[in-house]
Design goal:
InterPro entries: Isoprenoid_synthase_dom_sf, Squ/phyt_synthse. The chain is mostly helical and about 260 residues long. The chain is about 65% helix and about 0% strand. It is built from 14 helices and no strands. Helix 1 crosses helix 2, helix 8 packs parallel to helix 11 and helix 9 runs antiparallel to helix 11. The longest helix has 22 residues. It is globular, with a radius of gyration of 18 Å. The model has no long low-confidence stretch (mean pLDDT about 95).
Length: about 260
């Protein structure tokens, strides 16, 4: 009974706080969905852990708790009863130990220090969004030969999400140290180019992997507009309208088309 309750808690967490990934995972085979639900719920928890305290040391302690629990699971130690860890253990077992890398990637969030260079942002996205998409894709059957395609898709999707969140990140002391429009345009251009590379290799990706690769609504269009200087990500909050979000997910569910 506890297993069902905690899995339902993960599902509700996603439905409320990550509706795009929730909608996308529903296109996966039913037997694969619990693994994705628990992975994405874990990602939500570790992503918000650094922001549960404004004090860097306390924030890192909160994140460290997750890192230690995941490391214990990797050693075969059953976690304490928990809304996220319990179903994660049931679906991933000792493989959950490899997910510590996703939490480690969030350590710099605890410091509340902005990035100096666009290249630093790309490294951060590759470790966080890239690591998450790769783990999800692997659970759906991705092979090492497909890793570069997944990495490119994750970079584009991750940069789109990061740029959309930039006004909020600035308020938290994150973002870019130097607010130069050309840096934002450079990041958007690199994200768009990465998504185009992934699209050019799409024939190497079976439809079974699509649920892990959905980039969110109008991600490529958003990156294109930012790269052209038509959106000021430092001050403009750009979010797709609810109807656009629903339309994008509906199209994805019908076609399985994850590329541009």
């Amino acid at each position: 009974m506890a297993i069902d309750v905690t899995l339902e808690a993960c599902t509700e967490l996603l439905r409320q706080h990550d509706p795009d990934r929730f909608g996308a995972l529903l296109t996966a085979a039913p037997q694969k969905r619990p693994a994705l639900v628990t992975l994405y719920a874990l990602n939500l928890e570790i992503a918000r852990a650094p922001f549960q305290s404004a004090e860097p040391m306390l924030a890192e302690m909160r994140l460290q708790w997750w890192i230690e629990r995941l490391a214990e699971m990797g050693s075969g130690i059953t976690p304490p009863l928990h809304d996220v860890l319990t179903p994660l253990w049931n679906e991933w077992g000792q493989d959950a130990g490899a997910l510590t890398a996703l939490a480690e990637a969030r350590r710099r969030d605890c410091e509340r220090v902005p990035f100096d260079l666009p290249a630093d942002v790309i490294d951060y996205i590759a470790a966080s969004s890239g690591g998450l998409m790769w783990r999800a894709a692997c659970r759906l059957g991705a092979t090492e030969e497909q890793r570069a395609i997944v990495a490119d898709q994750a970079l584009g999707a991750g940069l789109a999400a990061w740029l959309r969140a930039l006004p909020e990140l600035r308020q938290l002391g994150l973002g870019l140290a130097h607010e130069r429009p050309e840096q934002i345009q450079e990041l958007a251009a690199q994200g768009l180019e990465a998504m185009r590379r992934a699209a050019s290799d799409r024939r190497r990706i079976p439809r079974d992997l699509a649920a892990a690769l959905y980039p969110g609504p109008r991600a490529a269009h958003f990156l294109d507009q930012v790269a052209r200087g038509r959106i000021d990500c430092f001050r403009q909050t750009y979010a797709p309208a609810p109807i656009a979000r629903r339309a994008s997910l509906a199209k994805f569910a019908l076609t399985g088309r994850w590329w541009i």
